Amino acid sequence: MDSPAVIEVTGLTKRFGAGVLAVDDLSFTVRRGQVVGLLGPNGAGKTTTLRALLGLIRPTSGTMAIFGEIVRPGIAVLSRVGALVEGPGFVPHLSGRRNLELYWRANGMAVSEAHLEHCLDVSGLGPSADRKVKTYSHGMRQRLGYAQALLGKPDLLVLDEPVNGLDPRQIVEVRESLLRIGASGTTILLSSHLLSEVEQTCSHVVVVHHGRLMQSGTVAEVTASVASAYLEVDNAGGAIALLAALPGVRSVEPSPPGIVVQLDGAKRSDLVAALVGAGLRVDTVTPRRSLEDAFLELVGEHSV
Amino acid sequence: MIAVEFAKQVRRVRTWVVAAICIIIPFLVGLGFELGGNNNANGGNGLNFVTHQSGIVIGIFALSFSSVLLIPIVFAIFTGEPIASEARWGSLRYLLVRPVTRPRVLGSKLGVSIVLAVGTTVLIPITGTIVGIAFFGLHPVHTFVIGSGSSVVSGASVATLPIGSALGRLLLATAYTLFSMLSVVGVATLVGVATENALAAMSSGIGLYIVSAILDALPGLSRIHPLLPVHYLEAWTNLFVPGGSLEGMLHGVISAGIWGVVPLFLAFRIFQRKDILC
Lengths: 304, 278
Prior knowledge:
The structure holds two protein chains of two kinds. Chain A is of the alpha/beta class. Chain A is built from ten helices and 14 strands. Chain A has two domains: 5-218, P-loop containing nucleotide triphosphate hydrolases (Rossmann fold, 3-Layer(aba) Sandwich); 227-288, Alpha-Beta Plaits, CATH 3.30.70.100. In chain A, helix 3 (116-123) packs antiparallel against helix 4. The two termini of chain A are 40 Å apart. Chain B has one domain (2-273). Chain B contains twelve helices and four strands. In chain B, strands 1-2 form a two-stranded antiparallel sheet. In chain B, strand 1 and strand 2 form a beta hairpin. Chain B starts with a helix and ends in a 5-residue tail after the last helix. In chain B, 49% of the residues are buried.
């Protein structure tokens, strides 16, 4: 049985002004306990989708529901959501700690329910939490923004590029924190243009490009749906001409020192047989099934 | 929500700078009269007093001098900025992803801004009166109508307001002046919400005053004068003119009410529907 839907996006479309179509008929579902990556290049409509989901912008058409409630500005169910949208934002003349307190108290919640000290620990700011935010570096603000999203142990976390601007060590810390939170049953929707990030953190992925849904499913499903092979042969030019004409091959491109073949039915063994049959020498054959490949192929189909 | 907003705004340097200015200005007014030595003062708007007779006069003049520019500027600063500042800091979206309705967010910000604007500008007549009393003592206020005698010596139409009455009238005049600022509050809030630009919001609040003051001074436009938000701004001076009519103040309250309520209504409406992109 599927666990209950936490987020249901149905036919979400957002057009800004008369022209730009930021999100185009996007639908996806996030179920309880899933850690879902919203993956797409910059400008794919990820942030617009998250903003709409939190009631910050009105969709041109389509509906969104969180915990079964239709999203409108300031709905009560937002008390169960922690969010980081398009970077952190704080009142500069107050301390990090004070900012989190005021954020939490804005709807009349007692600070004692916020788990403030725990969240500040996660931020790793230490004594800097008592300094004014305007003295913070970009990375410190980002970590404070992450900590703010965790206040009150929300049932759903919506995070827009959570590791943006962090150094490698901090990225690892946030990733481990996300894995811990996800393992404890919290539902997480995070957006990223970093494929490796999604692959390492998420159970599911929703791929978007130009505001449209490209594919969704478990990380394994999405990567498996796209088969490709990397080959090194003694005559790359000849191999490209030969393989491109082969049935079950979608495309062949040079990727020095070898070539990359996108498969559409053909098996890697078919490629090797064809090459050897034509008298070419095959040095290396490797499957390419990373999310990055899947992503590039999905995006590539529509980038023309 | 209101407590949260108060905590944010009170700590701002801006709040304290404005409060300091509102204390310094009436101090300078008092000093000016003390050094000036002239016994009579003419506020240029029908106000004529024997200054050295009573300190309360300094409070009245401080209010008169400030009502044209300083007080509108303070109101424009406080009410034009809150939404725009949060937008600039990027914290507006985090206010609005809380389960709090947008009218409540805007209402709290507006309420706190008005309280701070009133709280600082009210220092002007208060400080003026205190400074005046220090210089000239607390005495009944003598006022006279110009034309029937430009010096006290001619004396014919000098009216005397007892201390209690004079202080009461100053209080009423202050309340009237601050209420008149609803037009600035309305326009600055509307522009602040619509543009998310603090400078645009503040300057449109002040600009409204400057432009309508210019229009109000053009005799050819006398037909539209009653519609301008500054037209009745100094109607309170009749409180200190013997036999002065208070009809202007009544019109002023209505005018400020309309100039305040209409843009505020639009501001709330725009904010409710706005896409928060900052």
